[in-house]
Amino acid sequence: MNWRRYLKRRNCSPNTIKNYLNTIKAFVIWLDVPVESVAHAKVSQYIDHLMRKRLKPKTINCHVNSVRQFYHYLREEEHLPIVNPVRQSHALKMSKPLPRHLRDEQVDAFFDVVKGHRDRAMFMLMLRCGLRVEEVAHLSLGVLDFKQRKIIIEDGKGAKDRIVYMSNDAFLALADYLKVRHTSKSKKIFLVEKGTCTGNPISIRGIQKRMEYYAGKAKLRVSCHHLRHTMATQLLNADADLCTIQDLLGHSNVKTTQRYCRVSNLKVQRDYFNAMEVIMQQTVCNRNSGQSKGVSGKAELPTAASALLR
């Protein structure tokens, strides 16, 4: 299919290609007119259809974006004489919730119930290195540099590479797991440990299921991504530079990283009181300086005020 080849040429990930194909398939099945005849109003009707299915605004926007990209492809690659029926006004407004992170006591409660070297290493890499769940699943032995305590994240989100570093506890957790790791031909680090798939790489869903299991045991609302958010918030509270956090998380735009500034109340609180302490000291100094001038007679009253006192 030409559409699939086009997406591959754009270096889209297999998961992205799958989502594009599925959303366009759903759109074409819903249509009651030829694809070439779709107008702006028909896209609006499709959005209404998705809303009746109670899909979230973010999901609906993903569907609409797929349709936009598909018509761009038909026009630019297939050279069909059509107008892209998707307008900017079709995008639904979305709320922008703050990133959720764990408090220190919640982090302790979570890792208290995590058993097994593999699971502890996986979640410690998310917490200390800010790795996404798919990045943990795709880690291979060749990207580890124990001497410099760094990991090369290859082909991360947006097909970007980056380098992250391991804290002492993350380093030890990973080293402990590698000592007991199953012998396998797979170069992937994290493997299935039970069942018929033993020795095969653990899937993204497999990691998420382990997270759901431990979250239930710890009685916490926590996901893999919350550990990544926690790492960013902790770094910011420890006065790490915003650009450093951006590089470690692999954000393309620093505005994405700045969202953590709204979450990191501890840093805001500390900056506020430090600044207020300076302001209060300056106020006291100015007040004392003014009183001294009044006693020595060097500071004269304004003319209008002098007249009132006569």
Q: What is the distance, rounded to the nearest whole angstrom, between the alpha carbons of the first and last residues?
A: 98 Å
| Percentage of β-strand residues | under 5%
What is the overall number of helices?
14
Helix content: 55-70%
Low-confidence stretches: 304-310
Largest sheet: 3 strands, antiparallel
Give an account of the 3D structure.
- By secondary structure, the protein is mainly alpha-helical.
- The chain has 14 helices and three strands.
- The chain has helices at 2-9, 14-30, 40-52, 57-76, 104-113, 117-129, 133-137, 168-180, 204-218, 224-237, 242-249, 254-263, 265-296, 303-309, and strands at residues 144-145, 150-153, 162-165.
- Strands 1-2-3 form a three-stranded antiparallel beta sheet.
- It starts with a helix and ends with a helix.
Sequence-ordered SSE layout with sheet pairings:
Elements: H1 2-9, H2 14-30, H3 40-52, H4 57-76, H5 104-113, H6 117-129, H7 133-137, E1 144-145, E2 150-153, E3 162-165, H8 168-180, H9 204-218, H10 224-237, H11 242-249, H12 254-263, H13 265-296, H14 303-309
Antiparallel strand pairs: 1-2, 2-3
Helix pairs in contact: 2-4, 5-9, 6-8, 6-10, 10-12, 11-12
Keyphrases for this structure?
globular; disordered C terminus
Summarize the entry for a quick read:
The chain has 310 residues and is mainly α.
